[in-house]
Inverse folding.
């Protein structure tokens, strides 16, 4: 499941930190941007030892653990952050994301629902919950959430892509094509949108249109498109 992780979460205000805590933060931030996620975890572990009641340091530690696929460790850090500050919606959203990575979709949905209750205008919360519902084959529920995500952030191409996937799963191929087309309008160099639209077109027996999309996806780097081109396109 695609997930959208905002680097801006690492750029929060430092005014609440003392100078030493700020130094930990900057060290961890530098390692994060250098993609040295293990190094960032080490920095934030030291920060936690020095400031055991600072919820943000647990959050940053968890975020970097997700990057190295230590999802259980990330969840433990998010749990601690939540225990220290239960009203931050980001903590629930990222814990839900880690739970999705462990395919614990039911519990993830609970976290996304809590995040929505704390911040009902964040489109990403609805998108995350919609994707978790899709993974549980609750395609209608997924479409409802993704429609709300689109209402809140109409220029985010992935939301149309995700909703198109759910519509495709319900065999609403025409509806899926409309969503994939919108995703392409917003992000015309995203190979996935062309590939998925081709899948919906082939189900409507639009072989010519499907082949055009697979060829475009191939041009954009989709290595799997060639298999379908050989099978369906003359």
């Amino acid at each position: 499941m695609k997930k959208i992780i905002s680097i801006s979460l690492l750029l929060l205000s430092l005014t609440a930190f003392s100078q030493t805590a700020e130094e930990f933060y900057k060290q961890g931030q530098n390692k994060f941007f250098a993609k040295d996620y293990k190094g960032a975890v080490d920095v934030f572990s030291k920060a936690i030892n020095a400031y055991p009641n600072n919820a943000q340091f647990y959050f940053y530690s968890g975020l970097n653990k997700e990057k190295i696929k230590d999802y259980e460790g990330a969840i433990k850090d998010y749990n601690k952050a939540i225990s220290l500050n239960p009203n931050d919606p980001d903590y629930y959203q990222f814990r839900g994301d880690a739970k999705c990575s462990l395919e614990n979709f039911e519990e993830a949905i609970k976290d996304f629902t809590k995040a929505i209750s704390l911040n009902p205008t964040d489109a990403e919360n609805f998108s995350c919950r919609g994707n978790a519902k899709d993974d549980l084959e609750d395609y209608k529920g997924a479409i409802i959430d993704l429609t709300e995500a689109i209402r809140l952030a109409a220029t985010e191409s992935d939301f149309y892509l995700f909703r198109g996937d759910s519509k495709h799963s319900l065999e609403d191929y025409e509806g899926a094509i409309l969503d994939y087309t919108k995703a392409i309008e917003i992000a015309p160099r995203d190979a996935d949108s062309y590939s998925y639209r081709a899948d919906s077109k082939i189900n409507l027996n639009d072989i010519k249109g499907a082949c055009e999309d697979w060829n475009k996806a191939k041009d954009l780097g989709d290595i799997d498109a060639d298999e379908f081109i050989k099978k369906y396109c003359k």
Remarks:
- The CA atoms of residues 97 and 151 lie 22 Å apart.
- The chain is about 75% helix and 0% strand.
- Confidence is low (pLDDT under 50) at residues 7-17.
